Amino acid sequence: MIARAFARTQLALAAWGTAALLPAAAVAQTGAPVDLTLPGAPASAVPAITAAVPGQLSNAAALAPFLAKLANGAPGGVLSVVQIGDSHTAGDMISQGLRAALQARLGNGGRGMMPAGKPYQGYLTWGVTARQSADWQGNALFGPQRTAMGALLGFSGFTQTTTMPAATMSLTADSPATRFTRFTLCGLTGPEAGAVTVTFDGVPAEPISFSAQAPGAMCFVRTSAVPVTQATVATLDTRPVSLTAWETRTGTPGAIVANLGVVGARAMHLARADDTVAGAELAAARPDLVILAFGTNEGFDPALGLAETEAVLRSAVARVRRMAGADVPILLVGPPDAASSRAIVALPALPETRDCGAGWAVPGHLAQMRMLEKRLATALGLGFWDWQGAMGGPCTTMAWVAQGLQRGDHVHFTRDGGRMIGGGLAADLFAAASTLPPPPRPR
């Protein structure tokens, strides 16, 4: 039920160009309805999909610091990846596939950073279950929760605020493998900010006060001597508490992958994040690699402006570099092979649009976004991973949907599809790491 509810949320928000423009565009000047459905055509035979197509990573040299840690081990034993993106990231299908593949080779370092609590109905988490009482009011970078003058936001995408005493949030490990010894909680600070208690399996840990002389943001760490199953946060009084993110780590060497995504978001929505809040989150996550996974919603926009989008991406990369550190590599992940059944989105007149048959077409703007991101990766010293190429190229979405790897909207992915894509990304990263020269021997 949770997965179905999340899918409905994604369909409502993710590719807004598919729906938001239809009421006005679907009426001719005479007022008569216009059929915007692409003409049907017999679907061609589609190949069986058994794995992601390897070799989709380009400009791998830009990821050298991360690849060295991937090959030789990260200092401190934890390799941290932070993925920031849209509904593909929010749904955690692809990022979970990457997480599982990295942890299978490197060990389970923890779940990684997530938005605090359960920010919307249908919110899905892998390995842990998030719950909260009804006393929290949310703000988001994008979507129906968005309030321009609401609580400050970070790259986690959500901030939840309450002034009710005994308001609670809990994070529970779903299995022994995701139990944790380290718990990080991020929130807004200020002169009027309140405090929370933290308990591990019912045992009190040191409380956290968000009171500070000036407004800002901070992440606090609480540890347990033994692995715990549940962390519970509860407010102490009526002073406001605003939480943005939390993270768990196992205390053992291995990989962690944070998924910080908002359904329907574009790269431009990152500008709504506050520098102080986003900086505190990145400082707590301590990424060895940042993945920026945008382009699907941009590519489904019939009014896409490439010059404006390039400026947005350049700005986003510059901010992440400034906050995470210039030595932290960034990987751009291009949009997947996705299709629309509506001409107003697919734009058949564009030379880049590909007709897949059966009334579906890959929008030309998706190809333009992919080419833009690949070009920017070279210009800005970033890695680039071709998601569409990993699926097999244009119109292979038909095979992915037919085999239950991609949902019927030809945009989002199932659990098996996410495992395949995330595993393909991990395989390309490991392959690139294997080509690095060996580290110098100590003298």
UniProtKB/TrEMBL annotation:
Keyword Secreted on entry: no
Domain spans labelled SGNH hydrolase-type esterase: 253-417
SUPFAM superfamilies: SGNH hydrolase
InterPro entries per record: SGNH_hydro, SGNH_hydro_sf
Descriptive protein name: Lysophospholipase L1-like esterase
Lineage, uppermost ranks: Bacteria, Pseudomonadati, Pseudomonadota, Alphaproteobacteria, Sphingomonadales
Keyword annotations of the record: Signal
Signal peptide region: 1-28
Keyword Amino-acid biosynthesis assigned: no
